[in-house]
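ping. complex inputs:
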Amino acid sequence: MNLMVNGESLTVQQSEQTIAGVLQQLGYSGEIFAVALNGNFVARATYGETSLHDGDCLDIVAPVVGG
Amino acid sequence: MQDKLKLYGKEFSSRLLVGTALYPSPAIMRESVAASGSEIITLSLRRQSPEQQQGKMLWDYIRESGCQLLPNTAGCKTTKEVIALAEMSREIFGTDLLKLEVIGDDYNLQPDPFGLVDAARELIKRGFKVLPYCTDDLVVCRKLLDVGCEVLMPWGSPIGTGRGLMNKYNLQTLRERLPDTPLIIDAGIGAPSQAAEAMELGFDAVLLNTAIAKAQNPVLMAEAFRLAVASGRAARNAGLMLKRQTASPSTPTLDMPFWQQTVSSGEKV
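pong. complex structure:
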């Protein structure tokens, strides 16, 4: 399955995968990040039940300075 | 005297809101925010890989500062982008407050008035407390109030230009026509004198970033802005004198010594 994560392509071996699985695989831990799937917000509580499909785009964001 | 800034039911002593970007270092940013006396700081969200630690470092500082967080939607151009970023911000920062930015022009970063109203309406339905970064157009501001915004943040001039209050007529009109709405001048302030002027015009607060962060001495400039905003507010509360066309002596003229009657030519008689 091919995904786009933060604008870069990522190939996942499993045919079925959740957001929680991909985050773990990529090394995200803690709670100082948030996720959007195909441009739509995904609540943290639903990472484990949100399945990903080929071509999905994930955005994983964290706090930065701003004006 | 109690003179608190009230935003969505919360009270603040400081009327200066500051951004956290563009500082020479995180340490100078921290020191500058403290020197500004600000109780509200703006910040944002961006893509980040697990190896990058900026998010955690910033988060640690934010918790230590005790400041109210005001996440922004900088860079967004559509309601869909705004909604996703706003929801992500609320989850991370744990606040409903949101500085809404919908950019309509890349050259001067002018807010898109139609996108703003549309995004504000949707955000308010979702429970956000929206502080829109808007132009100084009275009708747009009214539309933003109509959809439920309780605070407006008209620009002084385009972001990062330091040109101060570009259109005082429009800004004064906003103040006069929306007397009960908290109005914060956001963007374009380049000097403490301009911040003081905004406060003298009756604006409730000033939000700025670049003027402090890009000063040669940001910490000292933060202090200067703290004083200017407090000074302008005190002046507004005190009531400014009316401007006059002709001179009027401040020293009494009655019983002036050495007085002799003169004729209009100045020749003594």
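The mean pLDDT of chain B is 94.
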